[in-house]
Design brief:
- The structure is a homodimer.
- Chain A is globular and about 85 Å long.
- In chain A, strands 1, 9, 10, 11, 12, 14, 15, 16, 17 and 20 form a 10-stranded antiparallel beta sheet that branches.
- By secondary structure, chain A is of the alpha+beta class.
- In chain A, helix 10 crosses helix 12.
- In chain A, strand 2 and strand 3 form a beta hairpin.
- Chain A contains 21 helices and 30 strands.
- Chains A and B meet through strand 22, helix 15 and helix 16 of A and strand 22, helix 15 and helix 16 of B.
Chain lengths: ~775, ~775
């Protein structure tokens, strides 16, 4: 897309507080809209592909949680330690398809003339709606209204209401609702097919399809059934089965007159071998879909909406007076809620969720660093706990991964990108060197316990993970004679615009903190859960004295690079040798530098992709005075180009922390409408799901000023000039609270649960029904 | 190959001073032998593939100088600045083929029983000889003797003498001499065919073939003809033409009795569009081959041997009392002479020469750093000069390459790997960061002038290159406020086991030296070639005052990392933060570390792949006292694992420089028989052609102690205990000299040319016929 066209993209979608609306069909934006209007329900999801045939440019995407294809690694030059495969998210068999034919013409928005096109994502109720009039070459005009949803109440069910009305002709309309296993991925290393269709056919009222991923052997069973109404009354179309290779469906032919409306309801059940025995997939999917069809569309939809209503009750954020910001934050929350529901500890949150194939894998450090806070505050504790348990389940694989890189004695290095615990990523400077992810995983345990108070988690799962992480750090540091300190060489920090640097402050800090927290955790479990402690000691072959004393030695003698005596931490040893240019000295034509500068030039520049030292200060802000935080912010913010979606949120939070509210607002704008306004013009590939947690943080932790101190919720809110009032719902220790912040006052209202003491701007408040400051 | 088998490989070939001999056929070693017994003549070359069919494992390889296929870049993750393609050396149509059939049996050493097998590379005369007895399944036994060479006298000609003798049967023998364009590369990124055959057929006595490389459009024209003798007398076989897709040849059938010998002479002409118009290739190749055939095999061979005789007269090295070392050094010299003859300034020396496909490209910094000295001393000056002109011809491309990476105003960055001046390599840490190659290119100009005295080269070509290189360095340094010096950040030095380091001493030194030498060169050209100077000023838009003064500022204020006050230079800023382990602390099972350690572990280790600081000391040894050289050698040698073929030679030379002769000998052994003994068990892929220049250097510069000081040859020789005498021939300023070093004395004999003053161990000698020290 050219820059001139880019401009037009801004606010391509209509601003509305609860909906995303596209008016008029522009095929140039179709792939973007396919991402934006994606639906999901935790178990599965899909891009907003059309039900009917579409011969124009489209990225077809149907995804099922937890299923992956191990795509053989592709590199230019092999480095020892590279993984064998990259787990790709497979585009799965299509279940939404409904071909529409009128005589010898087929409905295809790429060849028909389209008018009155509206596409709408209703975030409050979680459905996709589309209506248009298509004019065929013959001049025939057909009005279509389509609505679909993936049930949040019954997560194996998807349902579509597809209504057509001939406007100026009478005749036979043929519907072909189908299941199709002939699907491909765009993101493949060797142009391989990821699926084998094992079976596809029709049994009575049901079409079904069973497919298996190659190599990884996941199986899915799909079934569908349908129902047709003519002007609201049941009608029996002339029905034929269609059974082709990898394809099953029906041909339904109905004669109608101009002005009549035929409505097709298509119900589908999408089951996978993660939940069912492979051999039962077809039968079970038929049972599930027939049960759903009996309930009918409207009942299914009502149950679905009820779940969304419940979700919004503890996760909504309201912004008064800024509809674009309002739409932005709700879009972020909506996407997070439909990507991960926390029911299954085998699942995690992929960078594109159910909205695209890119980046494959499912789990990056994003989960621990940017998503845990959202799920902690908007869902019951078991949701975040499942995300922690996910890593616990992968501990053995993380130990094996570390062993592959030369570590031993139970040291664990969690993968940079993973599906099943095995490393997938293959850029040495990231895969092997971006080891701070190990810190984020420890921090997430701490963060979970801090928020929920659930210290028992340490005894059950957390401590084993912490010990393995600390063992890694002990082996990964080395003593520098010249510095007389422990150093950590050859790392990539959160700022991926520096590779293979020495003593990244954030990494050193995370390492040392992990060692300290592990010792605390050991002492806690030893005292409070002695039998669990014995079990862990035995399992991990832990030597308390030698191991903790070597950790203490490292904690005491860790090297932290400093810029000056006044508390500016240095990003890494060589940072000040760089030419000190500020981001505002870059020409507009050079930005983003990752698209305009060669990689070596980026690496030796001072420019920071995303919060690095500031990420550390965000994590450990209690350790630093406001003055030190300000000094570091003032040093790093002008050098930061925010070319990661994960960057502005942290800066925005810290700007709020030091009272620079308008700066915080500017930074917030970069994150909240990133996808809706397609800032990086890459939304066609899918949404930035994981950065949405950062957006949420910049609202609640940033403007809301929410913290947990000694088990107590505290708020020191700030409002930018533009906002008159914000209000958000959170969960906290079996309560639902509503926090409302206006220019004049901050109130914390108890929506559900028992009364609670909270702190607002340093004042303790008993929060019962409504408390005013 | 398993380690136990590896052992057997050592001295798999018989030691002989002039020949490489394989006795007995072992298919497990066939691909290794195909490399070892390769032939070339500067214009073309090939691996020692069999003429007859061979259904066993084989790497087919026929290569034509200067022809490449631009294979689309393959990487895991694209980085800005990566090149579009990697220039691959295409396996070219096969011209050696001669199928042999007896009734319904075909000669194939993979299916026949083989006895009395001998394969021999005669280095003195430059031919490949093979003889064996093959026993067919039927029990028939055939004796074969085959000899072939690629004419050094007429470099488009190859000739084969293929004699067969039925030992125990009579009947019809069918020979099918052919040309075959149906060839593939093993080294392709996307399994593509590199060649299209445009035409293949038979005209009278000639079979011909014309083929074109895809994308790059190089064309080759091959023709062949043949001649048969029965027991030494002409015989007319029953002849049929064979014309198939991409294949042309003859079927020649002859009835013979047991004990009779039939000899087939096959002559081939291999022409390319680098020398001929594409439309004339077929006709010309027919003319060329018919002219050669008229001369007959023996005459062609005599002319060929005469060239080798001449070659050896000014490049041989004789070692008394160490036949394995003798064979090793001659093998190195032989390969260098058959890879590059210096006739064509468009050509260069690929890392595998004509012995394999791997690494593609043709030109690495190896040429300037490791090969120029060999060609300077063993060939007339125009050979080395052509290597310099090769870079001069690529100057514009090097300027474009630098521009692509963000440099401007005529700054040049020469590519890491290239065929036509465009960058091919695609590992960011090497492609973009191993910029010291720019220093080697400047140094080669200096080295050439130092050796030949040909200062005019600066005015003609050299200065333009130097200016562009210096402009690069000026833009590549940056001022460090904290150091108060100019620094060079984000480089990879010669030691590729460190990436993206700051202030690599070697690179900083090379940069500063290049600036200084460029200023000297400017002043020289300004004074001695004023009109050329004006031309260059205009062409390069050179601003004398501003540019040279900024260069002087950098020279004066360049930062050089130091280990201590006593003159140990520090490899790079962070080197001393590493754990200081010595190479001898590595377990045998860990070596080579590049096969046993993960890449990140290698990077943060102290271990050095190849001479780095020591490479700089080698280049500028006059600047340092023996004490400083020793301190640096003593510091770096124990940390060096020599896992590059280009490493031991430099260490060997410096060991000699500081009087550690036996250490120098140990290091020499690692380089001279690297391929013959397959130290790295990778010889099957081809030979390490470029490191052979290093072997030569370690003999002549190392043990011979040869230097040029103020235009004068000087020698300070050392002999290891094992050697009683070494003797080598060199060219120097229109003379051929023989240098003989024994335990007792060193003599420099004038073989050709006018008398000359040389210095031996500090004493001036007039070298006329024989001079003794």
């Amino acid at each position: 897309m050219k820059p001139s066209e880019r401009k037009k993209m801004k606010h391509y979608y209509k601003v509305d507080e609860w909906r995303i609306i596209e008016e008029g069909f522009d095929p140039r934006h179709h792939e973007e809209s396919e991402s934006i209007f994606s639906l999901g329900n935790g178990h599965m999801g899909h891009r907003a592909n059309f039900e009917e045939k579409y011969s124009g440019k489209s990225l077809q995407g149907t995804y099922i949680a937890g299923i992956y294809y191990p795509d053989k690694t592709r590199v230019g030059w092999w480095k020892n330690g590279y993984p064998e495969y990259f787990a790709k998210v497979p585009n799965s068999p299509n279940w939404i398809g409904i071909y529409i034919k009128i005589s010898d013409e087929e409905l295809d928005l790429n060849t028909c003339k389209v008018s009155n096109f509206i596409r709408e994502l209703n975030m409050k109720e979680g459905y996709l709606y589309r209506s248009f009039v298509a004019r065929f070459k013959s001049g025939k005009q057909l009005e279509v209204q389509a609505k679909r949803f993936l049930s949040m109440a019954e997560d194996e069910i998807g349902a579509i209401r597809y209504a057509v009305k001939p406007l100026n002709f009478s005749g036979t309309i043929e519907f072909i609702p189908f299941l199709d296993g002939n699907v491909l991925n765009r993101d493949t290393n060797y142009d391989e097919k990821f699926w084998d269709v094992l079976d596809a056919g029709v049994k009575k009222e049901n079409a079904y399809l069973c497919a298996r991923t190659r190599k990884s052997g996941f199986e899915v069973g799909y079934s569908m059934t349908c129902e047709t109404l003519l002007n609201g009354s049941d009608v029996k179309p002339v029905t034929e089965k269609i059974q082709k290779a990898g394809f099953a469906g029906f041909s339904l032919k109905i004669n109608i007159a101009a002005g009549d409306e035929i409505t097709l309801y298509k119900y589908a059940a999408i089951l996978s071998s993660l939940e069912h025995k492979p051999e039962e997939l077809i039968d079970k999917s038929i049972q599930v879909v027939n049960k759903a069809a009996k309930k009918k569309f409207e009942t299914l939809f009502r149950d679905h909406v009820a779940v969304w209503e419940e979700n919004w009750s503890h996760s909504d954020i309201f912004i008064k007076g800024d509809p674009a910001a309002q739409q932005g934050i709700r879009f972020n929350i909506f996407q997070l809620n439909q990507t991960y529901t926390g029911k299954d500890e085998r699942l995690n949150i992929g960078p594109k969720g159910f909205t695209g194939e890119k980046y494959g894998g499912s789990t990056y450090w994003d989960t621990e660093a940017f998503l845990i806070p959202f799920y902690l505050s908007t869902e019951p504790p078991q949701v975040a706990r499942n995300l922690l348990k996910y890593r616990h389940k992968h501990l053995q694989k993380a130990i094996e991964n570390a062993a592959k890189l030369g570590f031993n004695q139970g040291a664990a290095l969690y993968p940079m990108v993973t599906m099943n615990g095995e490393e997938c990523h293959n850029e040495w400077e990231i895969t092997f060197e971006e080891i701070h992810r190990n810190g984020a995983i420890a921090y997430a345990i701490y963060n979970y316990i801090r928020y929920t108070g659930d210290k028992d988690y340490l005894a059950e799962n957390g401590l084993e993970v912490l010990i393995a992480l600390s063992r890694f750090w002990r082996q990964r540091v080395n003593w520098s004679d010249v510095k007389g300190k422990y150093v950590i060489l050859g790392v990539t920090g959160p700022n991926e615009y520096e590779n293979n640097v020495n003593n990244n402050w954030y990494t050193n800090k995370m390492a040392s903190w992990t060692l300290r927290y592990t010792i605390e955790a050991i002492d806690l479990v030893m005292n409070e859960h002695p039998s669990n402690f014995q079990r862990i000691i035995k399992k991990t072959r832990f030597h308390y004295d030698t191991e903790t004393s070597s950790w203490k030695d490292i904690i005491k003698n860790m090297y932290y690079p400093m810029l000056d005596e006044r508390g500016v931490f240095l990003q890494q040893d060589g940072y000040m040798d760089k030419e000190q240019r500020m981001a505002d000295e870059l020409l507009p034509a050079e930005r983003p530098i990752n698209q305009h500068w060669s990689w070596d030039r980026i690496l030796r520049s001072v420019y920071i992709k995303q919060a690095d030292v500031l990420q550390g200060i965000f994590c450990f802000e209690d350790e630093y005075t406001t003055d030190i935080i300000r000094r570091n912010f003032d040093f790093y913010e002008p050098r930061t180009v925010h070319e990661s979606s994960l960057s502005p949120c942290i800066h925005s939070i810290l700007a709020n922390r030091i009272g620079e509210v308008e700066k915080a607002y500017d930074l917030y704008l970069r994150t909240s409408r990133l996808d809706l306004d397609d800032y990086n013009h890459e939304v066609a590939e899918g949404l930035h799901i994981t950065s949405m947690g950062g957006t949420w943080m910049s609202m609640v932790i940033g403007f809301g000023g929410m913290r947990i101190k000694e088990g107590k919720l505290t708020f020191t809110p700030n409002l930018p000039r533009k906002w008159k009032l914000i209000s958000f719902n959170i969960q906290f220790r079996e309560r639902i609270l509503n926090v409302t912040i206006s220019e004049k006052e901050t109130s914390v209202k108890l929506v559900k649960g028992e009364k609670l003491q909270v702190e607002i701007n340093g004042k303790l408040i008993i929060c019962d029904r409504i408390n005013h400051q």
